[in-house]
From TrEMBL:
Cross-referenced SUPFAM superfamilies: Acyl-CoA N-acyltransferases (Nat)
Family to which the UniProt record says this protein belongs: Belongs to the acetyltransferase family. GNAT subfamily.
Ranges of residues in domain N-acetyltransferase: 34-178
Organism: Salarias fasciatus
Entries under Pfam families matching the protein: Acetyltransf_3 (PF13302)
Gene Ontology MF, one: tubulin N-terminal-methionine acetyltransferase activity
Record-given protein name: Alpha/beta-tubulin-N-acetyltransferase 9
Superkingdom as given in the UniProt entry: Eukaryota
Keywords carried by this UniProt record: Acyltransferase, Transferase
Enzyme class: transferase
High-level lineage: Eukaryota, Metazoa, Chordata, Craniata, Vertebrata
Catalytic activity: N-terminal L-methionyl-[tubulin] + acetyl-CoA = N-terminal N(alpha)-acetyl-L-methionyl-[tubulin] + CoA + H(+)
Enzyme Commission code(s) on record: 2.3.1.308
Main function: N-acetyltransferase that mediates the acetylation of the N-terminal residues of alpha- and beta-tubulin.
Length: 210
């Protein structure tokens, strides 16, 4: 999605940046993992296919993707951005007849970053971006039945279970953005700063320390 191609979102522990070609090799290595393939219901792709997918996601109007970076590590200018990658988060506008409905996906690919609240922080940041920038009014999450941690996180964030598909072994959760959800998102993301990605890349340490 061109909307976020130069957008950086800075949270407490993470930085969200656009999915660029430089991120593809690390992402490709992640997706060789049978565990991640199962959790994300994904098929393994060749590296060339992964580059094509990145380009498609960048250009398609119905897909908004950010790469999750470790903020502290990324603030060190000696660290290459690909070394700071933790996972990714996506919004898919899946229903042309209802552009206010968005499917939300998050993947914490690095095992050492799981169970530390990063998933919740990133989800709040992405939902806030979706509501304020993309006019999203309903969020949908489709999660594998074996991914109990992710299901529990979304339910704690007030998503409601609406259906279970035994064939695909996944549950669908839904959250309607009402005034109470808007207020909660505003409170939970009041610290988040939106920055110019290219400018921040060239001056990481100074800008992120402000």
């Amino acid at each position: 999605m061109r909307t976020n191609e130069n957008t950086l979102l800075e949270g407490h522990n993470v930085v969200l940046v656009p999915y660029n070609a430089s991120h593809v090799p690390r992402y490709h290595e992640w997706m060789k993992s049978p565990e991640l393939q199962q959790l994300t219901a994904s098929e393994p792709l060749t590296l060339e296919q992964e580059y094509d997918m990145q380009k498609s996601w960048r250009e398609d109007d119905d897909k908004c993707t950010f790469i999750i970076l470790d903020k502290q590590q990324w603030a060190d200018p000696s660290s290459r951005e690909e070394q700071c990658m933790v996972g990714d988060v996506n919004i898919f506008l899946t229903d042309p007849s209802d552009p206010s409905l968005a499917e939300l996906e998050i993947m914490i690919a690095e095992p050492s970053y799981r169970g530390k609240g990063i998933g919740k922080e990133v989800t709040n940041m992405m939902m806030s971006y979706g509501v304020n920038k993309l006019r999203v009014k309903k969020f949908e999450a489709k999660i594998g039945l074996n991914n109990e941690v992710s299901i529990a996180m979304f339910k704690k964030m007030h998503f409601q279970e609406v259906s279970v598909c035994p064939v695909f072994r996944e549950v669908t959760l839904l959250l309607t953005v009402d005034d109470s959800v808007r207020t909660r998102l505003q409170d939970d993301t009041a610290h988040v700063k939106e920055r110019d990605y290219r400018l921040t890349c060239s001056n990481r340490h100074e800008l992120l320390s402000q």
